[in-house]
Structure formats: C-alpha cells, structure tokens
Fold each of these.
Amino acid sequence: MIEFVKPEEIEARSFEIISQELETQKICLAAENKDVIMRVIHTTADFDFARTLKFSPDAVARARALIQEGAHIVTDTNMAKAGINKRKLEAFGGQVHCFMADEDVATEAKERGLTRAAVSMERAAALGKKVIFALGNAPTALISLHEMIKCDIYRPDFVIGVPVGFVNVVAAKELFLGGDVPYIINQGRKGGSTVAAAICNALLYGIGVR
C-alpha cells in the first residue's frame, strides 16, 4: 500500500518507521549515540549499523564540543564534502575540506610513492586547526593517521572512520578501536561517504535547530 506523506513530513515519518523497526528487532540504542545511529540508518536503510557503529567514551558530546569550538572537518571524498551541512558548520567557524582531488596532492603522491589519501592527511595535519576527520572511502587515510600518531608527528582531535570495501578496510578501522583518540568507527566492511556525511550531520543537527 502506498502511504501518502507530505514532502515536509517524509523525514519525520522515516524516523518513526526506523524507531518501530528497532523496537521490533529488540534493539535499544544508547541515548547519547542515538542521533548518530538513527541518521546513519535513515541514510542507508541498513539496521546493521545499530550493532556495528562503535563510539569511544562521550564521543558524541566531545565531537559536538569540538564543532562549537570552530573545528574543521576533513573528508576523503568530495562526495562526503558535498553531503555535509556546511552552512551549519560555518555558523560555528568551521569549514569542510577535501584535498583528495587537488592536482598538487596527486603530483606529490606520485613523486613520493604514496597514496593521495596519505598526502591528504598530511595536508590536514598542517591546517593548524582543530580537525574532525570524516573518512568514508580510503582505509589508507586511517592507516596514515595512525602512523602519524605512532611517530608522534600529529594527533587528530577526532576520527570518524567508516571506509567501505574489502582491502585493509576492517584492519584500518581496528587500529583506532579502544585507542585514546576519540572516535566513531564502524566495524566491518560497511560504510561509505554517505555514512561519513550522515554522522557529521547528526553531530551538527544535535547542537541546535537546523
């Protein structure tokens, strides 16, 4: 049966359906993480995220505090960058960056025998700002960040690690689980740019009224 829903009511109705299905599946979300998990499910229609999204202690509160302090967001795809509510972030003094498609990044990566993701993480570290990393595509970005932490070169303020795929994806995410860098990580192969953007938007929308 087709359900008639006014355009302005579709999102609210979607969240009602998600809540009903979570209850049916006997899944109870932690209150502090609920906004993020619900928006990821809304974006993907995949209820596995209710089980696989992992949060460091006070992750959501800490990420929102960073945003309110003017933190910038660095993504690993222009798709994720496009999906993040930049107007909302800019209201707190932050900007969204993606260095992956920059010609000079590609040139430097080729000269040094690195991935563009690795060079992009170095560019992010050089911003001189508080940074939330929202990574939904490149596990090498997570690996590079972890190497910088190990070598005491750079310490990210917050990591959203949700790359999707098969090669090094699971292992790259595991590098941050249980670590001392605040994170939201999705265990397993699932994720993607849309998931990274959805998490950022959930954090932004939870600070105040859209």
Note: DSSP finds eleven helices and six strands in the chain.
Amino acid sequence: MTQTFIPRVFSGIQPSGGLTLGNYLGAIKRFVDMQENGGFETVYCMVDLHAITVWQNPEDLRRNTRELCAGFIASGIDPEKSILFNQSQVPEHVQLAWIFNCVARMGWMKRMTQWKDKAGKNTENASLGLFGYPALMAADILIYHATHVPVGDDQKQHLELTRDIAAKFNNDFDVDFFPITEPVIEGAATRVMSLRDGSKKMSKSDPSDLSRLNMTDDADALAKKIRKAKTDAEPLPDSIEGLEGRPEARNLVNIYAALSDSNAEAVITEFSGHQFGTFKPRLVDLAIEKLAPISNEMSRLMQDTSEIDKILARGAERGRTIAAPILAKTYDIVGMLR
C-alpha cells in the first residue's frame, strides 16, 4: 500500500555568519513565500551541526546561530506558522543520520562535488563529518518526512543523494516509509552574484565587503554598495537576450526583479534603453524599502537574545513531536529494540 505523506517543506541554512542578500533572495524570501502561500507545513532550521564540519569558534557559532534566527524572523518567518529551531537541539537528526550512514555507499559520497571542492587536494586532512555531510542532510529532510525542499543549484546533488538514500532504505526493508523528496528551484535571483564580479556567487567569504549586500547593512551602506556595483557602459537592452555576455548587468536586473516580486523580462521592459545612472538609484530605493526594515528588526532582536532562545527552544519541542515518532518507526523497521 502506498503511503500518503503530508505536504511538508524542510530547509536550513548554516549559521556561519554574515547573512547576505544571496541568502535572503535565494533562500529565506522563498521560505516566507512557502510559509504563506505554498499549502505546506514548513520546517526551517539553523543547521549548526553542518557548520562544525569545519572548525568554528564556539562564541561565534552561538552568536551566528542567534543572528541567523533573527534574520529568519525579521524576514517574515513566523515561529507560530513555521517550526523554527537549531538543528543540534533535535537529536533525532543525528540518530537518523547514523542509520543513513549505513545505507549510503562510499562511492556515492566520493562523487559529491562539494566534498571535492571543500576538501581540496588534502582529503586526508578533512573531517569525517565533512565527508558524511550529505547523509546528515538527508536525515535533516527525512526525519520530518519532508516532501519538498527549496534548494539552490549548489545543493541539487545533495538532494538527489537524499532521494537515493530514501529509495535504497525503502527497497532494503521492503517498505514505503520515506518520501522521495522533490526539489523546489525557482525565482529570478536564486543565485545572486557578486557586486564586483558578476561571474562569481555573492559570498560572505569574499575579502571585499563591497562585493555583497549584508542583511545587517543600514540604508547608507546599501546605497553605497549599489552605487559602486560594477556595471558596463551600455544601456539596458530591449530583451533578455541582450544581457548575454553582460554578467554584472544581468545580476542587477535579477536582484531588482527578485526584490520587486517581478521577473527579469518585466524589468527589461521598464528600463529598456536606460543607462545604469538611471537604473541604480531606482535599485537603491527598492533595496532600502525592502531590506532596511529587516536590518532594523534583526538589530532589535539581537539586543535581547533571550527572546530568540525561547523561540528556538519552542521550535525544537515542536520539531521533536514530528521527528521522534518517525525515528521510532525507523528503529522498528531496522530491527532495533527500544
């Protein structure tokens, strides 16, 4: 008999510091949309266990986890509508991850491009946690029987592995227990690029702060960075095809489209023939309108983190009400005494 799964979304972000516009447009804004309009139960997480696959300063990790939670809330994630927590407070994630470590194959893990990129040539010096990261990600998703996951391009391969692990577990034990989770990849700016180099992803690790818009930037900082963003001398074209070979122009158009809940085609129609001297001030106004309130609310929340801690603790309790029965049934299927 085929099991029917509750439509449920799970996604998470690492609390490694420096929440950027890329995190907001590529992830958090979509999380809010799915909370309000998707018809799903929504579960969102600060994945602090993933963060420590590379070394983290403990005090920084605590602060970054709280700041990320503040960013979620300030952006519109409602802890009453969504389950919001940090991963390490729900031990079922790790318990299921061990089961999945025994389901996943070494060859699957070695093919993960993020493992190759992050471990580099010195794989012997990389942590075992970094190697097993995708199995923990699969557990994060499947401990809630999540049916959908909003992901960026850089996580598509990991979600494919999650589907493989679910399918192999179901096949190994002749059950229809874990869903084959569907990716949700959409939006005008799912991949936000650097303001200094349109061929590179916007990143908190870039040495130049001018390369990114931070969600903690005030209005003056937002305006300065957008005015200084790299562009070219050509006016905006009259069609999307005219942005080919113009990565910086395409990036700013995508950002405008995502902030205005529009699309690149509509932005091109509105600004066709205009120089960036006209377009950038409009983008500044839009960015301040949309982002400054988030920055202000994050600042307020971080002034008294006890409110954040209470929200995370309550979210963990709610998360465990879903996760604990799923783990218990998993143990039964595997043959473990409880």
Note: The two ends are 26 Å apart (CA to CA).
